[in-house]
């Protein structure tokens, strides 16, 4: 079976990902580095992998096209896109679509612990915008692109639902 190729972004850093799948085993190449990955346990929000000789436990929460992956109490925002779609988007717009959204959605239900910017503030891609507490962990919600904040729809110490609009950006 031929390897599938993807472009993945983890906390706004892009990686070339190639995956060859046989049952629960994956031969994976990330930016030229080869890994042997075996799925030990997997459900919709939890995954235990054997990566080479190490065991890693991940918790995954998907919001739209963004995966918030928790490993050892650290959360990273990630997207995965077929390399052909990514390259086509790069040619047509110069920017992948996940960075063009006017709205930032909540990746999971939780409590807003802090709002780090205000309306009309300029933010850079990757800036921390909000702190969302969910499942007794604080998750940093980051800006998907450079933008100016048009509206903030949440307040400190207020609950939010999954996919609720948190922030709206100007074009």
Approximately what portion of the residues adopt beta-strand conformation? Answer: over 45%
Stated plainly, the CATH topology of the largest domain is called Glycoprotein, Type 4 Pilin
Beginning-to-end CA distance, first to last residue: 43 Å
Tally of alpha and pi helices: 1
- What is the H-and-E element order? EEEEEEEEHEEEEEEEE
Poorly predicted segments: 92-98
Strand order of the largest sheet: 1-2-3-4-5-6-7-8
Shape: globular
Rg (C-alpha, Å): 17 Å
Assign the CATH class of the largest domain. Alpha Beta
Helix fraction?
A: under 10%
The major β-sheet equals:
8 strands, antiparallel, barrel
Query: Which architecture of the largest domain does the CATH hierarchy give at level 2?
Result: 2-Layer Sandwich
Number of beta strands:
16
* Oligomerization state: single chain
Please give the domain count: 2
Report the mean per-residue pLDDT as an integer: 86
Q: Could you say which structural class the secondary elements and strand pairing correspond to?
A: mainly beta
């Amino acid at each position: 079976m031929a390897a599938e190729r993807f472009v993945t972004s983890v906390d706004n850093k892009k990686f070339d990902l190639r995956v060859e799948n046989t049952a629960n085993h994956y031969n994976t190449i990330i930016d030229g580095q080869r890994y042997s990955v075996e799925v030990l346990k997997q459900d919709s929000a939890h995954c235990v992998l054997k990566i080479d000789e190490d065991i890693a436990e991940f918790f995954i929460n998907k919001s739209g096209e963004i995966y918030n992956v928790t490993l050892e109490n650290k959360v990273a925002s990630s997207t995965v896109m077929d390399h052909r779609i990514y390259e086509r988007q790069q040619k047509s717009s110069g920017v992948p679509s996940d960075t063009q959204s006017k709205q930032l959605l909540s990746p999971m239900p939780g409590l807003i612990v802090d709002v780090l910017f205000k309306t009309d503030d300029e933010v850079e891609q990757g800036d921390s915008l909000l702190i969302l507490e969910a499942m007794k962990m604080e998750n940093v919600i980051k800006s998907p692109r450079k933008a100016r904040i048009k509206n903030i729809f949440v307040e400190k110490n207020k609950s939010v639902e999954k996919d609720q609009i948190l922030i709206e950006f100007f074009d």
